[in-house]
Amino acid sequence: MNITGITLAEMWRNGGPLMWVLAGLSVIALAIILYLLLAQRRGALTPRALISDVFSRLQTGDLAEARRLCQRRPCAFGALALSALDAVQGAPEGTRPPVAAAVETTGAHLAERIQASVDWLADIAAIAPLVGLLGTVLGMYQAFGGIANDLAANARPVVLAQGVSQAIVTTMFGLVVSIPCLVFHAMLRRRAAKRISGLETLGVALEKAFA
Fold first, then answer.
1. Poorest-confidence range of 35-39, 45-49, 85-89, 93-97?
2. Where in the chain does DSSP place strands (E)?
3. Which of 135, 210, 125, 147 lies closest to 172 in space, CA to CA?
4. pLDDT of 32-73, one tens digit each?
5. What is the 8-class DSSP label of residue 46?
6. Residue 11: which of 180, 173, 160 has the closest Cα?
7. From CA 56, how far away is CA 69, in angstroms rounded?
8. Percentage helix, strand, coil for the chain under 3-state DSSP, each rounded to 5
9. Rounded distance, CA 56 to CA 53, Å?
10. Partners of 2 in the beta sheet?
11. Contact 133/175 with Cβ under 8 angstroms?
């Protein structure tokens, strides 16, 4: 790869040790993005087949089979349904089971977990430019500190260029990591909001099924 006559390897060397930190952040961000794209699919959180089967069992009063189905297919909807079933099973005889409270509590935990996992990208998007800024400060310190300590006038441009190069490279790569993280964070945050809204709808349906 060649950018304005400078190869990527040269840019990496000029960036200094902080380039490894930025590389690590980029790898973590990529892993999070791939994980969220897979883990927060509608089929992974609220599989239609499981929803249909569970509600069919609830209509016929087969709570044991409904529980078995949820345990066999762990997912967000399964957690909601199991919380409702636990509330029914644990309620004293002759009392109304606290299904609504159990579903709402589990739903709040699920929503928080879904949203928190997306916010990891926002954290990386905030950290990466700060790492780049640290590289900028170190580069400028190296540049002007080198000039101050260098008595040979003809060496000053070289010393200055090394520090400025580190400053520019780390800043640029910090933004290269941060900008895609912000883009995917915005996209995945909207998708997470839709998934949470779908879980809320299913929670209401579960409350009605046990009413």
1. 93-97
2. 2-3, 6-7
3. 135
4. 999 999 999 988 999 999 999 999 998 888 889 999 999 999
5. S
6. 173
7. 11
8. 85, 0, 15
9. 5
10. 7
11. no
Q: Look-up: residue for tokens 């297919």?
A: 73
Residues contacting 175, CB < 8 A, separation 6+ = 128, 129, 132
CA distances, 135 to each of 34, 96, 99, 194, 202 (Å): 28, 62, 54, 39, 49
Residue 70 makes CB contacts below 8 A (sequence gap 6+) with 50, 54, 77, 78, 79, 81, 82, 85
DSSP, res 92: P
What letter does residue 62 receive in the DSSP assignment? -
Question: Rounded to two decimals, what is the model's pTM?
Answer: 0.79
Tens-place pLDDT, residues 7-26:
667 666 767 788 899 999 99
Kindly compute the dihedral angle of the four CA atoms of residues 187, 188, 189, 193, in this order, to the nearest 10 degrees.
Answer: 110
Angstrom CA distances, 202 to 13, 162, 199, stand at 54, 60, 5
Q: Of how many residues is the chain composed? A: 211
Output the pLDDT for position 146.
57
